[in-house]
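As a warm-up, study this chain.
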Amino acid sequence: MGMIGGWIAAGLARLGLRPFPDLARGALRPGESTAAQVRYLLGEPDAVHEAEGGVRVHEYPRGPAGAETWMVEIGPDDRYRGMRNVLVDACFRQIEPGDHIEDVRRRLGRPGASADFPRRGERVLSWKYRADGGRLEHFNAHFDASGRLTGVSRTPDPESINAQ
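Now compare it with the structure written out below.
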């Protein structure tokens, strides 16, 4: 994207529109851009999480049923450090049995769906993402009644299947 993407992102922000994070990334410079500039380009985050060393992580889901959630790191000096999409296989592999529901939610962002199964004592959070080959799938995290991860599953996106 580079500089042209940055210009497009800044133009969209001036119009009051939120640009795609890929465009905003072209306008933001690690160590130079401020948290205020991040908010100007991306709008208010859905959530802000505190991380180690005074780092704040701003959560920007692309949804409500989008296939990306961008986490933007802001250092203790109030400077932009970088951003990444967390709805990818590398992040899913870091989720382990025993993790607490709030830890998973903090790492992957707001889920697109949640379902409770009282008879089984289970809650399932689901995130839509773009799998290898570009097909849409859902990553599902299964939690017990105490909020601990018991396992994960992946399912095809029903809207994508029906569209074929």
